[in-house]
Design a protein that fits this description.
CATH class: Alpha Beta
Mean pLDDT: 90
Number of domains: 1
CATH architecture: 3-Layer(aba) Sandwich
Low-confidence stretches: 180-193
Radius of gyration: 19 Å
CATH topology: Alkaline Phosphatase, subunit A
Structural class: alpha/beta
Bound molecules: zinc ion
Number of helices: 10
Order of helices and strands: EHHEHHHHEEHEHHEEEHE
Number of strands: 9
Largest sheet: 7 strands, mixed
Length: 272
């Protein structure tokens, strides 16, 4: 086999401090979690940068951006164990799955958010790209992941569990009464052009707490994935962007300029 298996997990909307406050024994096994920054505040452009081979940055000062990019691309040599891999391999396509395909990988994507569906621009140079039927099915993705002794595998997975409403429809986590109230009102007022009341501070805190629980849930599923992976498999666990929970009157991400929307966790390491 020419390169290491690569598992790239993107916890959608997972803000750095939600990861930091969660108990994550399995992510801890992979490596030390860092606070990093996403290149974009919402799902599609952020996933696009990851598929270019750009990982969340540290916002370094006093350096040229071109140097930062170059150093980041060199790290792929280490991650994949492919000698001589450099930025040159990434041009002109600027595509991580293309580079991997060129080096004999099978490239697979499993996505949860409909905005990343298989007909969108992101689905290039993938042998197998699938939108999951359920937003919260990391466990289903893991059941689907297979390894091959003769062919390195790339799995790029977008996880919906950490995305609002934070597994509200799942059975494994407690429901939030405040959010339920909002949904109930939406039903009651169907057809009326009335805006829902914005979350109050207490609801924001509950939502943040709920996101922390989803990170712990994801970490539990990760245990199974690490177990079934061959030794040497390289893991990246990160988020596509963060989330605001009431800071400066913001909730969520996307059309928001706030540091909390760009802060993401970054963990990487190899199965030993
Ligand atoms: Zn997202």
């Amino acid at each position: 086999m020419s390169g290491n298996n690569l598992i790239f997990l993107v916890m959608d909307s997972c803000r750095f401090d939600s990861y930091q406050r969660a108990k994550t024994p399995n992510m801890d096994r992979l490596g030390l979690g860092e606070r990093r920054y996403s290149f974009a505040s919402w799902t599609s452009p952020s996933h696009y940068t990851y598929l270019m081979g750009m990982i969340p940055h540290r916002s370094p000062q006093g350096v040229f951006a071109s140097e930062v990019y170059k150093q980041d691309f060199v790290k792929w040599v280490d991650r994949l164990g492919i000698d001589g891999l450099s930025f040159k391999n990434f041009v002109p396509n600027l595509s991580l799955p293309k580079v991997l395909q060129d080096h004999g990988y099978r490239t697979c994507a499993r996505v949860s958010l409909p905005v990343l569906n298989p007909t969108c621009h992101l689905n290039r140079h993938f042998d197998d790209y699938k939108l999951m039927a359920n937003h919260n099915d990391f466990a289903g993705m893991v059941r689907d992941i297979e390894f091959d002794e003769d062919e390195p595998q790339f799995y790029f997975c977008n996880l919906g569990e950490t995305h609002y409403p934070y597994m509200l429809d799942g059975d494994s986590l407690p429901h939030i009464s405040g959010v339920h109230g909002v949904f109930k009102r939406m039903d009651d007022e169907l057809g009326q052009a009335q805006q829902d009341q914005f979350f109050d501070e207490r609801q924001m805190q509950d939502l943040h707490q709920q996101q922390i629980k989803t990170v712990e849930y994801v970490d539990g599923v990760l245990d199974a994935l690490i177990s079934q992976s061959p030794v040497g498999t390289h893991f990246i666990v990160t988020a596509d962007h963060g989330e605001c929970f009431g800071e400066n009157g913001y909730f969520g991400h996307g059309p928001i300029v706030h540091e909390k929307v760009l802060e993401v966790p970054f963990i990487e390491g190899r199965k030993k």
